[in-house]
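hey so i finally got around to running the thing on that chain from the lab meeting. sorry it took forever, my laptop kept dying and i had to restart like 3 times. anyway pasting the input first so we r on the same page abt which one it is
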Amino acid sequence: MFGPRGFIPLLAIAGVYLLGPLWTAVRYTVDDEGVERRTPFGTRRWAWTELAAWRLDPRLRSAWITPRGRGTARFLPPVLLLWEPGEDAADFGTVIGERLSAHLPGRSES
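ok and heres what got predicted. didnt touch it at all, straight out
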């Protein structure tokens, strides 16, 4: 309202771009080539050589993967793996941990 003309639509577009992955369906693939994230906004693949470390928290059903190299925001990792609660949620966390530990240094929380 108080900014330059056209500023509100620009903020809305930026908000959808930044927060969209938090409220849309996301599908992850963790394989021998790396990690792939698919959303309605597009697909992104990180090769194992682009990733540095990971952390897993089965209680929160989440895993964080940080990038390799300088110039990346360490406070906001590019890959946040989340999974839904269910009967096999603990087993799924174990599977993710095994796949990530096969390629990256990291640690697991309990």
